[in-house]
Amino acid sequence: MKRIYSRLFEKGDHHPFIPIVSGLPRSGTSLMMSMLAAGGLDVLTDHLRTADDDNPVGYFELEDVKKLIQGEHSWLSRSNGKAVKVISTLLPYLPDGYHYRIIFMRRAIEEVLASQRKMLINRGENPDKISNAQMAEVFEKNLQQTERWINSQAHASRIEINYKKLIDDPSPLVAEINKFLGGGLDEEKMVGVIDPSLYRQRSSK
Q1: DSSP code at position 63
Q2: CATH number of the domain that 43 lies in?
Q3: pLDDT score of 22
């Protein structure tokens, strides 16, 4: 299958964009990366962080992304338009000079906190080192900063995807994502990646 981003360049787009998958930790960013890969979009990952019980489909991370906070982003110029996962904390460190299309994952904060807690327990770390209230405050401030950054960017557009809706009724959202990225993704394969049984921290709301 010919990769979708190659077709974008062939169309003569004067401003080729870089697809970014972002959101809070445990908000569904890894799932979205796996969906894009299944749909035919090249993804940028080094495979250093392998799949585990918390993320059976894999993390789809790139270690170099963490260097954004140090002002190091030379890897971005070599990405050739592949989709890359940039957690919301690091999003405002993306450099100017690129066009970004951001798929931003939204998930109920209580689910994010529960999933984060479970992951810490699985890793043998203390889940009570920071209280849920403190962590929720940190996440809220992060989301506010991210919102301000996105709104200030002339060359960044976004689509917000609700994690629960994506799991419960994926087809309409997958169609929106495909359109947002220019079309040409295999929507059926994207939907096929979703495993509702992995939605293990559901809130009552």
Answers
A1: G
A2: 3.40.50.300
A3: 97
